[in-house]
Amino acid sequence: MPTLLTRSTLPVPPARSAFTPAVTPAEGAGVQVLPAGPRVIGADVPVPVRDGRHVPYANLDYAASAPCLEAVHEAVTRALPYYSSVHRGAGYASQVTTGAYEEARETVRSFVGAWRRSAVVFTRNTTDAMNLLAHAVPAGTSVVVFETEHHASLLPWRRAVRLPAPATPAEAISAADRALRESPVGARLLVVTAASNVTGELWPIEELAQVARRNGARIAVDAAQLVPHRPIDMTALGLDYVAFSGHKLYAPFGAGVLAGRADWLRAAGPYLKGGGASASVGRTTRWAASAEQRHEAGSPNVLGVIALAAACETLSDAWDSLAAREEALVKRLRSGLAALPSVRELNLWGDRAPRVGIVSFVVDGWNARDVALTLSEEYGIGVRDGKFCAHPFVGHLLGRDDGDCTAGRDTAVRASLGIGTSEEHIDRLLTALAELAAR
Ligand code: PLP
Description:
Elements: E1 46-48, E2 54-56, E3 58-59, H1 70-79, H2 92-112, E4 119-123, H3 126-136, E5 142-146, H4 151-154, E6 160-163, H5 169-181, E7 188-193, H6 205-214, E8 218-222, H7 234-237, E9 241-245, E10 256-260, H8 262-267, E11 278-281, E12 285-287, H9 291-294, H10 302-316, H11 319-338, E13 343-346, E14 358-363, H12 368-379, E15 381-382, E16 384-386, H13 391-397, E17 412-416, H14 423-438
Parallel strand pairs: 3-15, 5-6, 5-7, 7-8, 8-9
Antiparallel strand pairs: 1-2, 4-10, 9-10, 11-12, 13-14, 14-17, 16-17
Helix pairs in contact: 1-10, 2-10, 5-6, 11-14, 12-14
The structure holds pyridoxal-5'-phosphate.
């Protein structure tokens, strides 16, 4: 049997420049000198604007989907010649692919600091991961969730106590404590986001984990918007479950993760029934015992998983420089917005709350959709507008606590950034908003 190549020892692909599209410096903006460190594909790609020019794209929509890291593209390209079935073939390529898939699981485990015996289940995305957990919680589990959650974490539960948006982090902790204490005897689960997809604010997940533990509950953390910006350590923080998506982590190949305690996952019926999830099938079916096998039925998204693991490795090697740079960019953006009288930033816990690179705002006299369209069509800037799949939270921030957050009304604009964002992108947005406000 030849020695197996693993994901990290697959041959290096040809010239790196093959993955980096040539960007023609376009009118209207200088060439960006990006700092050393991880690089993304498509930073400053030329896009058309209304007057017929092409300008370098200012992608400020990372919170929706982040661009692809060069290192991710390289890892996928390295894997492609050996691309084959996972857990199914005896052929060499199949063995290489299976090795790469399982190696990726260990990379992800170490990326989130999951305990050695935790399950690391590959899913399609965060929504899928949270739905898998909702499927696996024991019947009758009391679930407590804040109404500030993204719908992916707000909606999958059969029954949940919904806590209103807390006015401070301390209030979040005391409200969770009270709700868990008052929950019926039995399994209890607190579900909370680590970093808000609307305001970027960081939630006190370590303290909430302690509250959960004190009340005999588990905590599931939606880390979709945290892991692209900050490291997470499940063991040190005392987190039971973590969910996130590859496409927000610079690995846009359709894979996600649910990592956490294996017992509920092993006890639950398979999330999808079919090949892979079954150990033996005759008159009766015996399901696979391991949480991963049980809930990864069908052919898995091996390239997505390889991509995701490559992103985890790349970010793990770069946290210090990334966080410092992001903080400087966020400061530039927020102080620029604060200087525009017609712009109001949305936040739950005030100006000084720690946050990641996500900022939502409204512009007086402008509908959010028109702002986003004008930024795109006239300035080559990509932002998101709407309620960001967090309708109750955006309703709260906009002062519509009656829950009437009707589609098309009461929406905001969101700018979000990451690797590849430059000062020029931020300044272009601020200039454009000033011009819009003056119209
Ligand atoms: N949770 C948060 C905080 C998010 O921002 C998002 C997506 O925007 C999700 C969950 C859902 O992620 P996905 O669409 O990848 O399932």
